[in-house]
Amino acid sequence: MRLQRRLFLWFGAAIFVTGVVVSLAFAALGRLEGIRPKAQGGVDLVAWQAAQVWNNPEARATWAGHLAEGLEWSLQLEDARHVALASYGPPLLRTQILAPVYVDGALVGYVRVDTSPARRGKWWPVLVVLLLLFGTLWGAAGRIARRIAWPVAELTRVAKALGEGQLSARAEVHGRGEVRELATVMNEMAGRIERQLKDQRELLAGVSHELRTPLARVRLLLELGRSESSVLRTLDEVESEVLEMDRLVGELLAGARLDFSAVTRVTLDARDVAARALERSGLPPTLLQVEAEQRNFQGDPTLLGRALANLLENATRHGGGVSALRVTEEPRALVFSVEDAGAGFGEGESSQLFQPFRRGASSKEGEQPGLGLGLALVRRIAEAHGGRTFAENRTGGGARVGFSVAL
User: Fold this and answer.
1) Domain boundary among 238, 261, 284
2) Percent of the chain with pLDDT over 70
3) What is the pTM of this model?
């Protein structure tokens, strides 16, 4: 609606200015009003003056000569049968005034007058006015056309570049209004697509590497299983590698659900969600401490279960073990936090903890650090539920890592 109002004002202003210029042009040329009455008045005046001197050829010639010379007109005197008697001034090209002359009620002749010689050579004011008129219309039309067409052309250029894979293309539209908002939205969309594709390329590279490692170990264990008698131990190790790959695939699937906004919200109980996460991680239920009066909330059980599993696994691998899983309440939010018994975070480490591909050192000797997707996935799940993530050191030692969901 703002664009429509601006267009209306622009066209209205153009019409107003055009009307003013046209009015000034006609006023300068003496053609706005009173043309016919003035012309008739000129006919009557010329006829009356001619009638006073018509029967005196000398006085008639003197009057006609003075009139032609003083007003720069072309005059031709004719008798009643339109036979030319005399001409005065420049050659008569056209008749603008034809004044019949009556003496004592009888028609005695005519006076033909051409007033154009007085304006010959003075055409430049008309040209200036016309140039001013067309220049005003041209400038207004160009201004309007540019304001409408240029932003659209710029957006078309960027859309075409994005379609050809040039994800760094951005629209440069200045001013205010809907077109600027559209350009901003398109630039933000292009930035998100560029970041997502970059993350996906990094993710594919990292996942390919991470999957090859457990697969190679599985092949090695199978070869050892054929040559050794301790088959059960080999199968346990194979199972461990398969579980690691299953965990990685689960994180990828959870990330894909968030990419496609496939979040299913149902009514959940915070205690049940936390207890189920401890059970699936093989941890005792005594670690659960619920300190919230409001426990029901809306959320996706699969994604929240994955987020809690990642927090518990992170505390187990890198924090020296889980000390507690707490459920607390904040204004308009429920908070799930995992406390560990580790050494805590170093300076500046907690601020980067939830970044993608951020690897932490393993607490178990010989264990490789993870891909760095677990806590980044926790942050995305929390944001999808209207919450936030946090990581901080505890006063008595250890760390506290968690997330919130909006009530």
Assistant:
1) 261
2) 72
3) 0.48
